[in-house]
Design goal:
The strands form two sheets. This protein has a six-stranded mixed sheet. A three-stranded mixed sheet has the order 1-6-7. It is built from two helices and nine strands, in the order E-H-E-E-E-E-H-E-E-E-E. 18% of the residues lie in helices and 41% in strands. The protein has a single domain, classed as Hypothetical Protein Aq_1857, Chain: A (Sandwich). With 109 residues, it is α+β, with helices and mostly antiparallel strands.
């Protein structure tokens, strides 16, 4: 399961609307890719359709799709958002990560 905090939900809905997506019907695509200062990095996008290999989760009325390969790295993760003057933006709270970088955008297992 992948969760979305209330603060992340509010920001995702706002950004989806700004970019022409409908939070009630469209998806947040979360993936893991090679790269970043810790070896793996998160990729976050909006999508209007799912692929056959995608796993769909819904939490706090946000539909999240994850490809099968990325799912192994993301189980139990919570997408959070921290705003304000010292805020980082979107942050992945991943219990599978053994090491993360200072920016919170990459990790290693």
């Amino acid at each position: 399961m992948i969760k979305v905090s209330i603060s992340a939900k509010n920001k995702v809905e706002m950004l989806m609307k700004e970019e022409g997506f409908d939070p009630n019907h469209d998806y947040v695509r979360v993936a893991v890719k090679s790269g970043g200062c810790s070896g793996l990095s998160y990729d976050l996008n909006f999508d209007k359709k799912t692929n056959e290999e995608d796993k769909l989760y819904e939490h706090n009325n946000i539909k999240i799709i994850v490809d099968k390969k990325s799912l192994l790295y993301l189980l139990g993760t919570t997408l959070e958002y921290s705003g304000g003057l010292n805020g980082k933006g979107f942050v992945f709270n991943n219990p599978n990560a053994q090491r993360t970088c200072g920016c919170g955008e990459s990790f290693s297992l």
